[in-house]
Amino acid sequence: MSRIAIDNSHAPRPSAIRAHLQELRCELLRMLREPMYVIPTLLFPALFYAMFGLLMGGRSGSGAAQYLLATYGVFGTLGAALFGFGVTVANDRERGLFALRRAMPAPPSSWITARLAKAMLFSLVVSLELALLAGVFGGVSLSPGQWAALWGINMLGAIPFGAIGLLIGVICSANAAPAVVNVLFLPMAFLSGLWLPLSMLPEVFARVAPVWPAWHHAQLALRVVGQDGGGSPWLHAGALVTIGVVCAAIALRRLARVG
Which of the listed residues 31, 35, 40, 109 has the most CB atoms within 10 Å of its CB? Predict the structure, then answer.
């Protein structure tokens, strides 16, 4: 019996870019079907900014609105990245989805890039909401370059916070992950000066603030809007990069070992 040779040279090859885009599409659809994630992530920073930055802070002029524009952008980025990674990764681990992924032809990194892109997109949406409120109702006026830099800093800030969330999702169970994220998220936001300036709190809080990555992110954002909190921007950026690399390395090594 003769064998027929099949020429596969002209068969379409799978595109890595297309695979990443499909992964992102699925991740966005998944999150849009989870209103308990989407609604708080997109609306809470804007609501808090309207209450504290515009209504209460308006008595102090545009300075408070400008300060909280920067810090609530960090607050939105922090929530989008921590919950977007920490909770979903823990759930996927317990469902055995990572073991299934190893048998699939999808690029190994596609699920990470998709979740990271999702967190950055949510961060951008929150930043645009805050910009609209600040510009229309808060009397905040920034140059186009300042707006672009502020949005870019917030989007890039999703990377180290996503790494922290990834580490939480890898070491915690699906039931424990939401609680652990909240225990980290809320104190970090408060003690980093995201809700109100640290100068309004006891001095000890300002002394320990540099241990929080959100504080470093906030200093970069504040510098953009003209409210420099002190310290070299390279020092703040370096702290965020170091935290992100360390958390990601530990998380990926553990995920590869125990799944």
Answer: 31
Half-sphere exposure of 205 (CA within 13 A, CB side): 16
Distance of CA 189 to the CA centre of its chain: 13
pLDDT at 57: 61
How far the first Cα of the chain sits from its last, in Å, is 47
Helix then strand count (H, E) for the chain reads 10, 0
**Which residues lie below 8 Å from residue 90, measured CB to CB, with a gap of 6+?**
168, 169, 170, 172, 173, 174, 176, 177
C-alpha dihedral, 182 to 124 to 58 to 63, nearest 10°:
100
Q: How much of the chain, in percent, has pLDDT values that exceed 70?
A: 87
pLDDT in tens, 181-203: 999 999 999 999 999 888 888 88
The pTM (predicted TM-score) of the whole model is 0.86
Q: In sequence order, what DSSP letters do the residues of 135-193 get, joined into one string?
A: HHHS-----HHHHHHHHHHHHHHHHHHHHHHHHHHHHS-TTTHHHHHHHHHHHHHHHTT
